[in-house]
Design brief:
This protein is an alpha+beta fold. The mean pLDDT is 84. A 5-stranded mixed β-sheet has the order 1-2-3-15-14, with helices on one face. A hairpin with a 5-residue loop joins β1 (58-63) and β2 (69-75). The protein has helices spanning 2-33, 37-50, 194-208, and strands at residues 58-63, 69-75, 102-110, 114-117, 120-123, 139-142, 162-165, 174-177, 181-185, 213-224, 231-246, 256-257, 277-283, 285-289, 303-308.
Length: 310
């Protein structure tokens, strides 16, 4: 009996691993490129079988009826006989019935509703990534207080293309929440601290090494106040492929980097004194998180997280 119970627990664990992996994989594939029911079931089946010691299991159901969620249900299938039950080693001699076990997992797509990051917020009027685009146009986003032709989704005039936020810790981070106001930091130059210098130095080193720097920034759709009382209303979060910047006067790196030709192909995207700006493009960005919890409630600005919610 102990051996057979252990066999059942092991089967259950394998099925759960397959359901978890299948739900995450279907959610990712169907969110990025779309998929049919048959395609979703094929993806789930491959992961379910791959997580079974005998390479065989049954995907009983792939449910995509709830928006931004996928539920995968798996059950037992014997890899040798194809039977939908376990071959019990000993308890069958006692006329115990065959055992069938199952598992299920739900993966959800969530959009950030808060975070802590480099203290820069981008104006909603600069956000150009549509729901069907993988990348936006390369652009220069300038710091320009009082720019009158920059309006929010609700028609309010908002200052500039980007703004600095008050730091909430010593690591050059600002904590923000979607739907709330964030305190602004005055001045066109970025906060001059060793921690901030270290962050943009790491960006520079990554780009020089042939890598890509993706920054997920809060996007604001309204602003008000002045000086130390200034604020930005955070709409959501978007990911920006950072290719160059000019965060201070002169040409001293790392505060100024790849801000003009030959690194900037379009002269309109160059940023030289007195310009302060960041150069790059908005991109869709999906991260994977196996942690549990309820799905997020942020706004879809192309940045999302897939994780197990059940």
């Amino acid at each position: 009996m102990a051996v057979d119970v252990g066999q059942i627990y092991a089967e259950r664990a394998q099925l759960q691993n397959g359901a978890d992996a299948g739900a995450m994989a279907v959610m990712q594939a169907c969110h990025e490129t779309g998929c049919t029911q048959d395609e979703a079931e094929d993806i789930a089946a491959a992961l379910a079988d791959g997580n079974s010691n005998d390479g065989s299991s049954t995907v009983f159901e792939v449910d995509m009826s709830v928006p931004d969620e996928v539920t995968v249900r798996t059950t037992t299938r014997d890899g040798t006989s194809g039977a939908g039950f376990l071959r019990q080693m000993f308890s069958s001699a006692l006329d115990a019935p065959p055992a069938t076990v199952g598992a299920h997992a739900t993966a959800g797509l969530e959009f950030p509703s808060g975070g802590s990051a480099f203290p820069l917020a981008i104006s909603d009027c600069q956000y150009d990534l549509s729901s069907t685009a993988a990348t936006g146009e390369i652009q220069l986003i300038k710091y320009k207080p009082g720019m009158s032709d920059c309006t929010s989704t609700s028609g309010h005039t908002i200052p500039g293309g980007f703004g600095w936020l008050d730091q909430t810790d010593s690591a050059c981070h600002a904590e923000t929440d979607s739907g709330d106001n964030a305190d602004s930091d005055t001045g066109a130059d970025y906060p001059s601290t060793a921690a901030c210098d270290a962050i943009i130095q790491s960006w520079k080193d990554t780009i020089n090494g042939g890598g890509t720097v993706m920054g997920t920034f809060p996007v604001y759709d309204n602003a008000g106040g002045s000086g130390a009382g200034g604020w930005f209303h955070i709409r959501g979060y978007a990911t920006f492929n950072i290719q160059g910047w000019k965060f201070g006067g002169g040409n001293t790196e790392p505060r100024t980097f790849h801000n003009k030709a030959p690194h900037v192909a379009d002269p309109a995207d160059a940023c030289t004194d007195p310009c302060r700006g960041i150069i790059g493009q908005f991109v869709t960005y999906v991260s994977i998180d196996s942690g549990g919890g309820l799905p997020g409630v942020g706004v879809d600005l192309g940045t999302s997280k897939i994780r197990l919610i059940n």
